[in-house]
């Protein structure tokens, strides 16, 4: 279930990258400051960031599709089944995109905390 939470977080992050990056860059006070010691590694290659950008777009589509199905699920068992299926699809998309889940999640966390890295990924999304 940890993998699912991380991937859904990444999906939400990806959606935010595509719609709210400009706003976040214009209003740096909107993001809470993180202590330097807690900052994740940001030494990702351009290739990894490109892969992250491409996979993020797929994750957003998968997330939207499965969010609708999750809301339509009739009971907890059905919801759990939808979540597991969504998780599998997201993991498949990440791996097919050339990344492992840990690297994808690490980039996602780093992007949330590093506006410069977010800008680099946004540029990959737009190109």
Automatic annotation (TrEMBL):
InterPro entries: DUF4168. It holds the Pfam family DUF4168. Residues 1-24 form the signal peptide. Residues 63-90 form a coiled coil. Residues 46-121 form the DUF4168 domain. Keywords: Coiled coil, Signal. The keyword Magnesium does not apply. Residues 21-41 have a biased composition (Low complexity). Residues 21-45 are annotated as: Disordered. This is DUF4168 domain-containing protein.
